[in-house]
Amino acid sequence: MPFGFFSSSYEDQGTMDDGTWKFLGLDRMQRLYAFGCCFLIGMVLSIFSTLFLISGNIAGFAILYSIGNLVSLLSMTFIVGIPKLFKTIFAPVRFWATTIYLSLLVLTLVLSILLKNVIISIILVIVQFCALVWYAASYIPYGRELIRRFFGSCITSI
């Protein structure tokens, strides 16, 4: 089994777990709606964090952006289930993506609150977003391969 950040192993895909949300009476379609709403809330929080950035509140920006990212990440529990998400979050295929993402999340918060440097905060947020996309792509069959091909074609067209 490949173990690495650029792994293209697909045997550990996140499929829907029907048992996790049964106790709340959520069927498959309701869980898909809940995923969409939760993911959208996370994205809205991340987008609204730019208001803090515009006002010069770097710490508020980093905190709200990171909370938005975490809400978006936790929206996956409606798709794959809570136990499976926490079981597979550090699976070999996504170990480094998860580790880098969580490290960047903490680093973004700490450095933004302590240093209050706009440039460093924006760079960390961009890299954090890229790590989240790479992590999420590991749940989509051939998701990482699509990202590689897209950026590969962009580079070769330059």
UniProtKB/TrEMBL annotation:
Give a Pfam family name: Got1
The UniProt entry lists membrane topology as: Multi-pass membrane protein
GO CC terms: Golgi membrane
Q: Sorted alphabetically, which keywords does the UniProt record give?
A: Golgi apparatus, Membrane, Protein transport, Transmembrane, Transmembrane helix, Transport
Reply yes or no: does the keyword Membrane apply.
yes
Instruction: Tell me its family.
Output: Belongs to the SFT2 family.
Name this protein carries in UniProt: Protein transport protein SFT2
Q: Which organism is it from?
A: Lichtheimia corymbifera JMRC:FSU:9682
Q: What is the lineage of its organism?
A: Eukaryota, Fungi, Fungi incertae sedis, Mucoromycota, Mucoromycotina
